[in-house]
Amino acid sequence: GKVYSLKRHLDRLERSAAAISLPLPLERGELEQIILGTVRIGAATDCLIRVFVSRGPGGFTANPYECPAAQLYIVVAQFTATSEEKVQRGVTMITSRIPVKKAYFANIKSCNYLPNVLMKKEAEDAGVNYSLSIDEHGFVGECSTENIGIITNRNEFLVPSFNAVLRGTTVTRMMELAAPLVADGTLSRVAEAQITVQQAYEAAELMVFGTTFDVLPVVQYDGRTIGDGEPGPVYRRFLQLLRDDMRSCGEMLTTVTA
């Protein structure tokens, strides 16, 4: 089998660990081989890999120097695909009331998930699929563990600026795959931007991006219908591009040897 986007996830792991001065317990090559070996032993046809690095055992204070050595945990779990109903009919979203993470911490992929958990609870309690954060200036950010993007009525593909939003591996790959669509006229441009709630309401298409489902269309946001209330043509093109990339793009795939 093959693992999709492993190198990019490890790049982000290294950046995030460096940002909090957490030394990784293994060299990059050794870490990669252990991950692939764990996948091989698990022998699952479709699986999801979780890699955790902690400071390890230590004291009960906030002093990181009480922890003598970092520890590594790798979990390979059976993958459960997103329901076909969400893929074909779309999902719903509300504006979150949970304060956003400050830019420095938003760009670190860590287990500091309290705001994320509260956002997911907020969505579940409201009977919708996702809640979307808003910064102090009124610009949209991200969902609990997902990025978003819009297609404007001028056929622009815009994603919230990564200055204060986690640089998701799926949405950044989508931006790369979408670039050629400018040349064929499907899109007018692909860019990061400061996006207001009103712009999201008025978008021709609104989408969420994430590792476990690739891309999903948002058909209702804060009770307002997005576009015509159905998954749009750009979404369907994006979904096909990501699925093709996952199956056949050599640079994005790492082989699990027997």
Helicity, as a percent range: 25-40%
Order of helices and strands: EHHEEHEHHEEEHHEHEEEHE
Number of helices: 9
- Helix/strand/pairing class, anyone? alpha/beta
How many distinct folded domains? 2
Count of distinct strands: 12
Cα separation of the termini: 9 Å
Regions with little confidence, pLDDT below 50 for 5+ residues: none
CATH class of the largest domain: Alpha Beta
Helices and strands in order:
Elements: E1 2-4, H1 6-19, H2 28-42, E2 47-54, E3 71-78, H3 84-89, E4 91-95, H4 103-106, H5 114-126, E5 130-132, E6 147-151, E7 156-160, H6 169-178, H7 180-183, E8 189-193, H8 197-201, E9 205-210, E10 214-221, E11 224-225, H9 233-248, E12 253-255
Walk me through what this model shows.
There is one protein chain. This protein has two domains: 2-80, Aminotransferase class 4, branched-chain amino acid transferase, N-terminal domain (D-amino Acid Aminotransferase, Chain A, domain 1); 84-246, D-amino Acid Aminotransferase, subunit A, domain 2 (D-amino Acid Aminotransferase, Chain A, domain 2, Alpha-Beta Barrel), CATH 3.20.10.10. A hairpin with a 2-residue loop joins strand 10 (214-221) and strand 11. It has helices at residues 6-19, 28-42, 84-89, 103-106, 114-126, 169-178, 180-183, 197-201, 233-248; strands spanning 2-4, 47-54, 71-78, 91-95, 130-132, 147-151, 156-160, 189-193, 205-210, 214-221, 224-225, 253-255. The chain has 258 residues and is an alpha/beta fold. It is globular. The mean pLDDT is 96. The strands form three sheets. Strands 4, 5, 6, 7, 8, 9, 10 and 11 form an eight-stranded mixed sheet that branches. A two-stranded antiparallel ribbon has the order 1-12.
